[in-house]
Every structure is written in C-alpha cells, then in structure tokens.
Amino acid sequence: MSALNITKMPIVIIASVALLIFSLVGIGTMTGLIPGVFSQSKTCNDCGVVESISAFQVQGQATGLGAVTGGVVGAVVGSTIGEGKGKTLAEVAGAAGGAYAGHQIEKNARKTIRYRISVRMNDDTIRTVTQADDNGLSAGDSVKILNGTVVRS
After folding, report:
1. Buried b (16+ CB within 10 A) or exposed e, 84-116
2. DSSP SS3 for 116
3. What phi, psi does 91 have (nearest 5°)?
4. Is 119:50 a contact under the CB 8 Å cutoff?
5. What is the per-residue pLDDT across 90-131, written as a single tens digit (0 to 9) for each?
6. How is residue 6 annotated by DSSP?
7. What is the assigned CATH class of domain 43-59+111-153?
8. Per-domain residue ranges of the chain
9. pTM for the predicted model, two decimal places
C-alpha cells in the first residue's frame, strides 16, 4: 500500500486554505485589526482635556445658632446702655443687631470653596462641571467625566 499524496487531493488543499483564512479573519476581528463586533471603539464620549479651572466661594447655610447667640449677646450688651425706656430700646436694638451679625458670622464660617472645571470634550464641545475638589487637575490634563465628576484619565 502506498502513502497518500495530499497534493493530489484538491479538497484537502481547499479545506486547509479556508481554515487558515477563517482563522486569520477571526483573529483580526477580535484584536481590532478588522472592524467587527469584537473591536473596541477608540472614541471616548466622556473624555477630553481641561481648558480651565476656577475656584469660587459658596456662602454657607446658617442653622440659626449664630442668630440666637448674637441676639443674646447683643441684648446683654444693650442692657448696659441707658436707663428706663432708653435701656429697653438699647436691649432690643442690641438683640436685633446681634442676631443679624451672628447670622452673617455663622454663614461666613460655613463657607466652602467649589471648583468650576471647563473641559473640551473629544467631540470639540465644552462641558463645565462644578465640584468640591479640583482633584489636582490643571489646564491641559487629559480627563474623563464620570458621574458628574472630572477625573484624570
């Protein structure tokens, strides 16, 4: 019995070439060399570059404690001024002035710094995000906007 000569069997050659082509196309598609269902998009819709960062103060919310404390202190100071109806008027004026001053002092003590960050997105639009921290970013940094927060990408 003689050995089989595969070059004389065209079906084997055709099947081998088809298998080789099929494998190469599959590898190319999965690695992104050939666009297809497995290739990853190279465009990031939430990515961009920081254009500018500006810090600003946000006035704090008063709880009323400053107004109450200021009013009491103002009334005590006002009671040391004058006599009779003048003393009563000074107490009321001191309480009102102290309450206002205490309210303003409390709001000032509770102020916070916020950051307005402008990002030029990959699609050339500008998005501005306001957040509590600048995350160490500066103009020119590549970033991504995740859940309304700008982070380094």
Report:
1. eeeeeebbeebbebbbebbbeebbeeeeeeebe
2. strand
3. -65, -45
4. yes
5. 777 777 887 787 777 877 777 889 999 999 999 999 999 999
6. G
7. mainly beta
8. 1-40, 43-59+111-153, 60-110
9. 0.52
